[in-house]
Structures are given as C-alpha cells and as structure tokens.
Amino acid sequence: MNKVKKILLWVLAIVLMVVIVIYQRATGPTYPKKGEIEVAGSKVEYNLLRSHEIGMNAPVKIQAKSQDIIGKIKFKRYLSHDEWSESYMQREGDYLISSLPEQAPAGKVMYHVSVGKSESDMKYITEEPIILRYKGVVPEWVLYPHILMMILSFAFAMRVALEASFKRDNVLTLSYWTLGFFAFGGLVLGPIVQYYAFGAFWTGWPFGKTILHFGDLTDNKTLASILIWIIAIFRMKKHPNQTWWAWLATVVMIIVYLIPHSMLGSEIDFTELENK
Predict the structure, then answer these.
(1) Which residues contact 14 (CB under 8 A, 6 or more apart)?
(2) pTM of the full structure
(3) Looking at per-residue confidence, does 161 or 276 come out higher?
(4) Would you call 226 exposed, middle or buried from its count of C-beta atoms within 10 A (0-12, 13-18, 19+)?
(5) Among 27, 92, 21, 25, CA closest to 62
C-alpha cells in the first residue's frame, strides 16, 4: 500500500507540474498572440509572433481568404524616439504577409496590423500593438538540459509539498533534490542560456542601472526562490517537524513559475543609446 501511495503521489505531482508549466507558457509575453476578427463578413485569423531569433527579419503573416481584404502594418523600435513606419502587406494566396526589421539580441520592435476592404475602413486586429523581442540562437546542448532541470525541479517541488501534506518521511531528502535541480538549471545553465540569447550571463540584482534597480525579473525570481529553498532546508534540518517550510518554498516556486518567464526581461533601451 505504501508503494502504491508513493506512485500515486508522483503521478499527482507530475500532473500538477504539467498543468502549471502549460499555463505559464501559454500566458507568457513571448507566446504568439492568436485570434480572429470579422472584416466585412469575412474571417481574418492571426498568429502574431512576439519572439524571434536573430539572423533574419521576423515574419508577420495573417490569413485573410477573401481576396478583397487588404492589410497594413506599422512598426517602430520599442523604447525609442522612432516615428512609426507604415507599409502595405503583400498578398500570397490566402495570406497577407510582411516582416519586421531584425534587431540585435534583446532589441524589441512594436507593431500593429490593420485590415479592411479599403483604406477608409481599416481596423486594427488587436487592441494594443504587439511587442516582439529578438534573441540569439541558443545551442541545444545547453537549452534542453536547462529545460529538463527546471521541469524536474518543479516536479520534485510538487512532490515535496505532497510529502509534507501527508506527513511522510522524505520531505528533507526530496527538498535536497529539488534544490539541486533548481540551482543547476537556474543558476548554472540559465545564465549560459541567457548569454547566448541576449549576450549577458546575469542581468538581475545587483546589476541594474542602479543598486536600487532590481534588473531582470527572470533572474531575480529564480534567485529569490532558490534562497527560500536554502532557508527551508536549513530550518527543516534543524527542526524536522517544521515541514511547513517545504510548503512555503513550494508556494514561492509556484508563484515564480506563474510569473511569465520573460516579463521585465532583457531589453535594449534605444533612447539611452541615442543619448550617448
């Protein structure tokens, strides 16, 4: 019975991990903006990119099967004094296409797409402009292990919380595994991934614009969660009955995962570059 219970707890932990990871990915600022609108009785579907690798212009492509529909795109660099550039989209079969000028890693472009059957009835397909961030190419040898370590750390964190809930004996051992996977994935492999993607190993605190500028949120939330796990393990090792520390560390980790991965992440402020 004990073995069956252990298996069930692992299954539940993995299910919880998968649900939260899917939610986090689907709501993140780098996930494409999808939807559809109706234009003069015709459906227009869009899947607008919010992240793209350097090496080529980012494509912008919407589906508008009605050949009468035309599209325009306006864009400018995000955090810049640029004026909006505007051009018509080109039709290729059922699609209207365009592209955004490539930027350096962490450079962002803001763009807004409008459609209509004539110049006088054009309307935007999204309420707000889309912001796309360019990134460098991250080698698979570091990207996949990083993702694996982060997934394992979260699965083990869920398992720790369940272990503590049922007052079982392996809370501390599972916490060590959680911290190990999390620290290796977040503090060792994570900075390497960020270096390839955006040219810097660490952009969190204290490497902001000032000592009071906390910098990259992704780095900071990872560091904060790892520190909580270290404190939790230290307290549980000294006071074995205080397994609520495992719950606290897990809750903090869940909050960290639910914060979109690239929110307040690395970006180029072109206004500062222009002033230099």
Answers:
(1) 155, 158
(2) 0.85
(3) 161
(4) buried
(5) 92
